[in-house]
Amino acid sequence: MAQRIGRYTLRFPSHPAVLAGAAVVGTTEGEGPLRAEFDRVFPDDTLGESSFEKAESALQREAVTLALEKAGKRPRDADLIFAGDLLNQCIGSSFGLRDFGIPFVGVYGACSTMALALGLAGLAVDANAARLALAVTSSHFCSAERQFRQPLEYGGQRPPTAQRTATAAGASVLGAHEPDKPYLAAATFGRIVDLGVQDANNMGAAMAPAAARTVADFLHDAGAGPDSLDLVLTGDLGAVGTALFRTLLNKDYGIALSETRHADCGLLLYDRETQDVHAGGSGCGCSASVFNSHILRQLQCGALRRVLLVATGALLSQTSTLQGESIPCVAHAVLVCAPENGKE
Amino acid sequence: MAQRIGRYTLRFPSHPAVLAGAAVVGTTEGEGPLRAEFDRVFPDDTLGESSFEKAESALQREAVTLALEKAGKRPRDADLIFAGDLLNQCIGSSFGLRDFGIPFVGVYGACSTMALALGLAGLAVDANAARLALAVTSSHFCSAERQFRQPLEYGGQRPPTAQRTATAAGASVLGAHEPDKPYLAAATFGRIVDLGVQDANNMGAAMAPAAARTVADFLHDAGAGPDSLDLVLTGDLGAVGTALFRTLLNKDYGIALSETRHADCGLLLYDRETQDVHAGGSGCGCSASVFNSHILRQLQCGALRRVLLVATGALLSQTSTLQGESIPCVAHAVLVCAPENGKE
């Protein structure tokens, strides 16, 4: 039974365990600094499929298969799967997961989807609505470019503020508390924030205010400062959004988040010095793959003890941009903690 | 705290109340048999907006505003809103709801969205994750035609098996149990079913197997026959899907659902004799508007006592159809009951 603390935050008293996570990525991501952390790096971004959309579905299928394997579970053990992606009508999820036979809850939060799905899966396990619940999402550079910008063949140029949609998927398996597993302690579901940014090539700037608000909500509700967290891990603000996020947090909410306690999945996934990714990574698969590999491993071994994953989403579409609209954004946060039995 | 019964069904022991529902519709829907039941019929399908997408957002905004008003609540009283729609990246919801400041959980279930959102909102209230939770969805004939088929100006013809996307939105306000309000007793989240139907102009045929499976799951889990329900209310199977649904339920699951205990929102919304709607209504707004008007009223007065709303969704996109894919479908069900204090 969830416990409301403050206005916007839910605490999960049963401490649902993250039994396992899996992350699978494409070629470029596999050449980045986290290459050794992923469960699988595909040497060909088509994954042998006949379209990029089908490749994205395959990424999601692969992430779920591996996560279940690592947790020692079968698809039939899962009571619910929370899944979504960036493709129109979320076909990465529906086609990727159609053969598992797991009750399917489609969610949409753009690049905030991993935190949204984790928060809901945590709620479901905590509330006894699922003994085992999965959270999964994906993105694919090529399917996203075709859908949101231009087919790759056009060779379109992107400005320096643009980010690279990660070819990646991540899946987490949640179940009842286990003392030697990381656990979900709380979730803050975000409100929509729209400060009027209209540049779809600068999502970091559009999403930073939503991230700042959700982090401020969480800390206010928890009655704690940023030092209560080992890491605030934003989803994919990239280089531009990261700077803005820390500035806004300080200016608008009086919260001084030191650089050492903040990391952004969009900056962790690639090496911007040597990889041509402009302002960093983005896409649902960005935070999903970073969280379910590098971060979960650090939580498992106790190198990190309290991580607030704050995934951010830009809730626009091509149509809304063409119609001159600004970009409504949202950030969802989940607090994930190291195992109780771990070393301090 | 939810109680799992059987393999797929959740019972909500606290009986979350449906405090109010609101339904707003466009011109054609306002000329149909339910015209007197809606909270608002717009005489102009643009709602005075400059695009059909903005009109759809306005529908959703209006439905939420009216539902909150009818429940005697303000937006700030709501802890969560579960919302989604058919537009790419669900912009009907994100733009329609961005000004309410309610923590926003985007969901995607195509035309199954109303039942999906209701089930999650019920779970949230039952689990104490929200004191007040909203469920809302919308669709718009003109935005859907442009996105999924052709702009209206092309004057495209549709085959008799096609359905008309409803211009409509519906919103429900859920809160803690109240003995004189209808309540959510249970939910069954569906599994994806894909029998290989590829005709995007015959969604009823594609979705019927998903509806049959979810109804069979629910009845099996509840250990009851169809006579335990006053009404099985499918979302939008239309004329073709309705016939198939009852046949499949009988043939595949041995469940004889009499015609008097079954209704389909897609057939209730329009008068197919006098209105040019082919096989009936569809779209997220179809079941949302029928449930939140006609059906909720009958539950409120006790004319119906136990209604299983089974909204069905076709989880395809234009891209998946162009790539020769079949149509994965899902059906989510919620059991809504008449007030405890009502007359038998």
Automatic annotation (TrEMBL), chains A, B:
<dbReference type="Pfam" id="PF07451">
    <property type="entry name" value="SpoVAD"/>
</dbReference>
<dbReference type="InterPro" id="IPR038369">
    <property type="entry name" value="SpoVAD_sf"/>
</dbReference>
<dbReference type="GO" id="GO:0016746">
    <property type="term" value="F:acyltransferase activity"/>
</dbReference>
<dbReference type="InterPro" id="IPR016039">
    <property type="entry name" value="Thiolase-like"/>
</dbReference>
<dbReference type="InterPro" id="IPR010894">
    <property type="entry name" value="SpoVAD"/>
</dbReference>
<protein>
    <submittedName>
        <fullName>Stage V sporulation protein AD</fullName>
    </submittedName>
</protein>
